[in-house]
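Troubleshooting: if your tokenizer reports a length mismatch, compare against these two reference records.
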Amino acid sequence: MAKKKITDIVSELASDFLRENGYELYNAEFVKEGRDWFLRVFIDLAEGTGEDGEPVYVGTEDCEKVSRFLSEKLDQEDPIEQNYLLEVSSPGMDRALVKPEHYERYIGQEIEVKLYKAMDGQKNITGVLKDFKSGEDDYLVTVSDQDGRNWSLNLADIAKSNLAVIF
């Protein structure tokens, strides 16, 4: 049987705890930077808005709580062979859109998209995420830019996309 991805193991270990405490796993990554390995866990509040309808965000105390739990669980289970640093944080206001459910959640929001290669002379597109749907071979992302142009992009052509931070 194939070895499970470390991010999948983290998801399984944390799922009940996160749900019971009003959090959700936004994303997790296990990456090597230089000589060091990092297990980065991004959490969000399961209910992203308060009673007044305004957005609420993950705080330092939330990250500490999840970090303590995960650290203890990972020490017990010991699924990671190499030494690593555990980081638990919020995905931030300019959160990366990584999974299909992220795109679905933020339809109607302004996003910044960086393409692997230019399309019609553009490699960076900023606009409102209008639609996200499954296409024939890939997901299709529709973004309406400030000039009113609708861009239909294959998810595979997107190098990076984030929520735009507007002040």
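Reference record two:
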Amino acid sequence: MKETDTLLLNRLKRPEGKIDVVLDTDTYNEIDDQFALAYLLRSGEKLNVKAIYAAPFFNEKSEGPADGMEKSFQEIHRILELMGRTDMAEHVYRGSCSYLTDETKPVISPAAEHLAHLAMEYTPERPLYVGAIGAITNVASAILLQPEIRDRIVLVWLGGNAHWWPDNREFNLMQDVAAARVVFGCGAALVQLPCMGVVSAFTTCEGELEQFLRGKNALCDYLVELAEREGAAGSPYRCWTRTIWDVTVVGWLLNGGFMRDALVSAPIPQYDHHYSFNPENHLIRCVYHIERDRLFEDLFRKLSEG
């Protein structure tokens, strides 16, 4: 085995001890980013948060990617205020105002530039962990700005669907295919948490939110209100559940026995919203099962503290 392959496999091992982390998040897009950001900050025993980046998104909640990024930037600060963590405010960076359209040209933003600079302080043996829970342009742009960082980071991304799913029309990937092709193809250590077929099972409901979070603190009440409003609005049934997708990225970083995963050859996202496969591609780690109850137990306990 080549030395480069050995170093890659070492970075793909589950993290031990305390690690340095940045989070790239389209925080205003849904309700799950808020849960994930709060969970990350409440996991200081294992995760040392170095920076938070606002990612672009475009749906009914924004007028375009730039507006989505700005709303996410403001939502990050709202969560920090609710948590009493305004000390982190100076470490929040605006991300890109558009998606990557050329696989060779970065979209310049404060987030991409900061990540490109910060990651150079790390080494292949002691990498920076990059949790990503939105469109991946900020991270792809940082790699294009400073290609050396691909050997100094571990990217943990919730993006794309399970490799056996019939299509790849998943929000984070489908709006940002060029950037996805950069991060899957550059040879960086990548942990993929596929949405449909894997993380889609990580759901909660009104009863759980009321029992475990309601009334615990201002943060919990805010999260419950968001989740219950969108959960009820998004289902025709009284007995609704809501997927809290992005929490799973933090769960993998914590290495608390919350995941089952495997090493597989990196798939190739195509512009027709499918994968193609080459068994000779470099390896990535792909999650195939979430220990749902165990992860929610840890999440609810930490959110209700303070």
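Descriptive notes for reference record two:
- The radius of gyration is 18 Å.
- Residues 57 and 279 are 32 Å apart (CA to CA).
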